[in-house]
Amino acid sequence: MTGDVPGHVPVMLSEVLAVLAARDGGIYLDGTFGGGGYAGAILEFCRCTLWAIDRDPEAIARGAALVARYPGRLHLLHGRFGDMLGLLGEHGVTRLDGIVLDLGVSSFQLDDRSRGFSFRSDGPLDMRMGRDGPTAADLVNRLSEHELADLLHELGEERAARRIARAIVAARNTDPIVTTLRLAGIIRGVLPPDHSGIDPATRSFQALRIRVNDELAEIERALDQAARLLAPGGRLVVIAFHSLEDRIVKRFMVMAAGRAATPSRHDPGSLAARPEAGFRLLTARPLRPGAHETAANPRARSARLRALERLGTIVDGAAP
């Protein structure tokens, strides 16, 4: 029993449990509650206390049944995982024995056409993980052609960003773009089908979703705060699903573990003593899902798991 509900499949669950190494009496955080898959599995694995955060009020509402199943052990918090320090601090939690962050979009959000995340079914062009701030439709209809091209290139790594931006602006001059299938159709009209089978709209939808939810900055805030919260021996486990996310996670963990490249011996800075690393890498290279999992759950195929462990003792409020 994992505690998740039908339709939600937690990615690399066995690997997460193995690396997190949760123990009886520990205090843990699932920073991306979603469908409760990781949360339920951790609570079933050992007699621990688990806090969970989600910015989507629908996820918090779905979690009520899991809270009832583990009375006094599971606590749900509505908010952004990049605000975990404050959210937990309000409840007197200042140290954690482990943190899990699954940076992927929730299956519930992808499958609910009314949320506007997917280009496979029609719905309002929304893409907000919460219920505040501008929607994807706002961006598509208000940004200049140059701004749209930059967004698609930087956050979607889309090579045809300028052509797509030009087509979007031409289309919205006729009628505002307010649905997912209309936007996907505009993009597919510009790009030929990818030989890999990836839909031509994939990268553009990714870019808009990242901008709407400020995802990359949110990840940076979350990593910094997670490092502050981990007790000695505490572990941070992060699953990323695309290169922009994984690059941020890798850079943070390498720096925290003192693995950053050393300066040239000709650089005067190389003479300065390097601070002692406060963490150790648990994954020299990212773990990837196995063939059996990717066959059963194609959404897992791009997942990369990285993990870090806090060493020694820490000073209150100190970051790595």
Please characterize this protein's 3D structure.
With about 325 residues, this protein is α/β, with parallel strands linked by helices. The protein has helices at about 15-20, 35-45, 55-60, 65-70, 85-90, 105-110, 135-140, 145-155, 160-170, 180-190, 200-215, 215-230, 245-255, 290-295, and strands at about 25-30, 50-55, 75-80, 95-100, 230-240, 280, 305-310. The chain has two domains: about 15-110 and about 215-310, Rossmann fold (3-Layer(aba) Sandwich), CATH 3.40.50; about 115-215, DNA polymerase, domain 1, CATH 1.10.150. It has 14 helices and seven strands. Strand 1 (about 25-30), helix 2 (about 35-45) and strand 2 (about 50-55) form a beta-alpha-beta unit. The radius of gyration is 21 Å and the shape is globular. Mean pLDDT is about 90; it is low at about 1-5, about 270-275 and about 315-320.
Q: How would you summarize the topology of this molecule?
A:
Elements (H helix, E strand, L loop, with lengths): L12 H8 L6 E4 L6 H9 L3 E6 L2 H6 L1 H6 L4 E5 L5 H6 L6 E7 L4 H5 L24 H7 L2 H12 L4 H12 L7 H11 L11 H12 L1 H15 E11 L2 H14 L22 E3 L9 H6 L7 E7 L10
Parallel strand pairs: 1-2, 1-4, 2-3, 4-5
Antiparallel strand pairs: 5-7, 6-7
